[in-house]
Amino acid sequence: MKLVNSLSFTFLLVFAALAFSSCRQTNNYEKHITLYVGTYGDSLFKYSIDTKSFEYNKIESAAVCNSSYIALSDNGRYLFAVTESGDNSKISSFDNKNGLKFISSNENIAKDPCYISYFKEYLFTADYSGGSISVYPTDSGIINPASQVMQFCGQGPNIIRQASSHIHTVRILSDPEFTDNYLIATDLGDDKLYIFKIENSNGKMKCIPNNPYYIKTAPGSGPRHLEFDIARNQIYLLSELSGTISTYSYSEQSDNNLGLSLKQEILADSTDIQASADIHLHPDGKYLYSSHRKMNDRIAIMEIADNGTISIVGYQPTAGHPRNFVINKEGTLMFVASKDEQLIQIFTINPESGLLTDTGHTIDVESGYPVCILIE
Q1: What value does the mean pLDDT of the chain take?
Q2: Cβ contact 103:95 at 8 Å
Q3: Are the beta carbons of 125 and 133 closer than 8 angstroms?
Q4: Pairwise CA distance, residues 174 & 193, whole Å
Q5: Residues 237, 193 contacting (CB under 8 angstroms)
Q6: Which H/E stretch holds residue 17?
Q7: Which of 222, 259, 271, 294 is geometrically suited to a Cys-Cys bond with 241, CB 3.0 to 4.6 A?
Q8: Is the per-residue pLDDT at 344 higher than 60?
Q9: Number of C-alpha atoms within 13 angstroms, CB side, residue 15?
């Protein structure tokens, strides 16, 4: 009888421990998400979304034209936005802890910045029509004049889309096991990936060409967006014109240059409509997603094998023109910006398969066309 009571008591202790652990996990679950939305329009928006009911509220907005890409400072204090408007292009900054109050803008920039990254108090922009990469120091959110501009003058076989260099993405590869940090940019117009080492000289950041300083992609592919997989030392490149995803293995060489080697290439969009858009890695590293527009609007869902190769496991239809999307840090939700329908769709993610389910809930953007989403 004593043995039975002892076993019962032990069972109760284990059950209580599991219940407590489950309770702690539930409490740690992110109940609300702060979402920033850049638009082709006159404003950018900040929303709060309940992750259970999917109810949302607009917290704040800021007047900025054609904010096609946005970025936060490392501490979340400052929000930066491009204005992709030809000769009227600029970049602007806002106080994210003070009602998105305007701080500064810089109008002396190249045409049509379409991507912006923040790294150690510097901004890096991909200037689409300008065919350049620009570097801007910041100070307490104030954007200073460009400290460096890298100009490119190439072209590709597609005479309509590739008449000149079009820099589409600029991102910073910061691998904790590497000596240096590296800037990697895509040139949609010249079918190239550019690579620069980031050096700090006398307290000023400068981009130095890597050796080699570019990697050539397939002719006419039009490299657009890329994603880093630090755990596997891989880069996934989505090409807009070919609809392909290229996997590159990377390593830091003995001379402190970054080496890239092509590992795999798959076709993610077979419509030949030349409109692949965005690519993101699931937080647990098991799945990769890409968006494809203008015909059969959808998200491609890929599984990553133990050896780092990717394979398509399915497609999720979306609303019109899924230009940009984000995944929450728990990996349970995906938010997809439908440019043509002026809304953001909310999908749940199956952790076992990576497949998506449409919740039927949307965030209706009150003005402008949503083209960039950012989660704080």
Answers
A1: 93
A2: yes
A3: yes
A4: 17
A5: yes
A6: helix 2-28
A7: 222
A8: yes
A9: 6
| Cis preceding-peptide flag for 370 (omega within 30 of 0) | no
Which of the 8 DSSP states describes residue 145?
P
Residues 6+ apart with CB under 8 A from 142: 93, 103, 104
- DSSP character string of 56-118: EEEEEEEE-TT---EEE-TTS-EEEEEE--GGG-EEEEEETTTTTEEEEEE-SS-S-EEEEEE
| Cβ atoms of residues 87 and 65 within 8 Å | no
Closest to 119 in 3D by CA, of 95, 97, 136, 142: 136
Q: How far is CA 222 from the centre of its chain?
A: 18
Give the integer Cα–Cα distance in Å for 231 and 304: 12
CB-CB contact of 247 with 232 (8 Å):
no
Answer whether 0.85 is exceeded by the pTM. yes
Burial 30-40 (b: 16+ CB within 10 A, else e): eeebebbbbbb
Which band of pLDDT confidence, cut at 50, 70 and 90, is reported for residue 22?
very low
Q: What is the largest CA-CA distance in the chain?
A: 87
Alpha carbon separation from 375 to 82, 190, 219 (Å, rounded): 17, 31, 34
pLDDT in tens, 175-192: 999 999 999 999 999 999
- Tokens 């740690």 -> residue: 28
pLDDT at 59 > cutoff 90: yes
Amino acid at 351: P
For residues 275 and 91, give the distance between their C-alpha atoms in angstroms, rounded to a whole number.
Answer: 26
Average pLDDT over residues 205-209: 96
* Interior/surface letters 309-320, b for 16+ CB within 10 angstroms, e for the rest: ebeeeebbebbe
Residue bearing tokens 């937080």? 283
